[in-house]
Amino acid sequence: MYEFVTGPLAWLSFAIFFIGLIVRIGLYIRGLDWRLDRVTYGENVSYGIKGALRSILFWLFPYGTHSWRNNPWFTLWVFVMHIGLLLTPVFLLGHNILLKERWGISLWALPESVADGFTVIVILAVIFLVLRRIALPEVRLITTAYDYLLLLIAVAPFITGFLAYHRTPDYYFWLIAHIICGEIFLMAIPLTKLSHFILFFLSRAQLGMDYGIKRGGMKGKGLAW
Amino acid sequence: MPEGKLCNKKPVNTKEELQALLTDKSGKQYYEEMNHLDVDRKALWGTIQKSFKSRLKTWLEICSHCGLCGEACFYYLANNKDPRQVPSYKIQQTLGKIIKRKGDVENAFMQECMDTSYAKCTCCTRCGVYCPFGIDTGIMFSYLRGLLFSQGFVPWEMKIGSGMHRIYRAQMDVTVEDWVDTCEWMAEEYEDDWPGLTIPVDKQNADIMYTVNAREPKHYPEDIAEAAILFHVAGENWTVPSEGWEETSLAMFGGDWEACKLQVESVYAAMDRLKPKRMVVTECGHAYRATVIEGPYWAGLKSGKTPVESLHYVEWVAEALRTGKLKIDPSKKIKEPVTYQDSCNYVRNAGLGDIAREIMSYIAEDFREMSPCREHNFCCGGGGGLNGIGRYREQRNIGLKVKRDQILATGAKLVIAPCHNCWDAIRDLEEIYKIGIRWSFLKPLLINMIEVPEELKPKEE
User: Fold this and answer.
1) What is the ipTM of this complex?
2) Which fold has domain B327-449?
3) Hey, what CATH class is B39-153 in?
4) Would the CB atoms of B293 and A215 count as touching at under 8 Å?
């Protein structure tokens, strides 16, 4: 089992992840239409790039925009969750040891206690986001089962990984579960709404170009996000 | 496929059709016929397949349902934070469902979509500024309005408006003769007070070609006279075109993209004909957006720009004050607290926030910002054509509460609103809520404030 999930299944999930993301980028860009979107992507390109970068960067930093600042708790948990989701799997010591064994490469690794802390924070953040979905009427109404499923897909590798790392009695079970959950997560990124992994940047860049080229970017200082 | 006599999928292209619609008081028969209008599902889905591409698709698909757009929407705030007013909810329940069902929707659902896309969204695009993914629900609702128009589900007044543009190249039945006569009449009317005042029609190679909102010749001709006086005092070499003088676009509000194109092309043709250095648009938000910001795209101009550089009136005013073409008499500056209404159509859609502040710095001693302001300002409550639609008067009036409270919080009793829609909405909010405010365009205020050179004053007999 271990050989299978860390072998063929791992290859499959990485392939879906990378190819899926490339397809997403390709389809998005191919579907842009200067006339339908009413943005001259090919004209005044420098303003477009400036608008796109501003639109991405302001939103990439916690409290960088009015919307982030208006919602301090949401912003805090959303950012720590995303930081944890990105950093922990890439810089986890265990993952890098595995990489070294298989492909002979490895990255710098986080101290184990820090990774453990990130894991707990991701789990807490997801709990916060679930509670928020239930507690706020304006969020509850628009929340669907799919939204909860995505949170589950995102947090499952962390819960199972935490249990495996802390050597619970069923270590082997949790390890396999962790690997499978991680692979589901990877595959889900291009295939579900988690595609905002890349579409966040593309969509933000598009609206940024809209503002940068057409909606005032060539006249003022640019939109105060 | 029952098509009504008045309510149908065919746009209005003749005066007879237009007259029939106008005769139907408040659209009584029109809306009755709408209840029986069939949805051409195949055509609807066909249109979607051709026009629903990655930008819109991605917006609908990746929305995380985080709800941050709620507080960005003035309707949500005005309706006691009713979750059904969250932009994400509104668009998923309408456009979202049409897409999910591949256009397989019923009459009642289309009417629901119409009610939502007009009475719950003014396409102010504020939500797009507050969404982490940059999802601009206002743009999506505008797209939805286009789909609805193609199927005949459009408010009566917007159907009329689109017909007006198609027939008269103006949102009202103002003909070229009416327009030119009005200009002549205004020049004569004000000539005694302003010796030498003229409204030059169709002058070639002028520095400025001035264009207006059809309401001005139709209902507020003094506005044209005021513009003429200010150009006269500023010493501008200006003109108005006999054809292609109308900037507004009810067709844009109604989603009639074909009429949008026809309308802006009439203005661009005037530019080609008269070859002015620049165009200046009157104090109207959506007119400027339609003709200057969106118009080039409807007309297929690859540069995304109008054939000659185009300014909103506030840009011209700021320039005239900055360069001293117009001088403010310091003793006549506005002394009382005064606030400024940023029009969504040129603050969020054209970035004219700084220009407005510059003007206020020249003319007001106690300028009070609304909170929020500039590109974060709330819609006046009457945008997107809503002021003109009788069917949604009640929802519009509730929406006005946000602007009312914003104005009250400034303590100012005078609101400067260089936008016809905002001006109307603020007038109506005063009428409904009676908060004791006055509202004004810039032109009449400026005329009372400027220093008039001796040679332009009437000679004492």
Assistant:
1) 0.95
2) Rossmann fold (3.40.50)
3) mainly alpha
4) yes
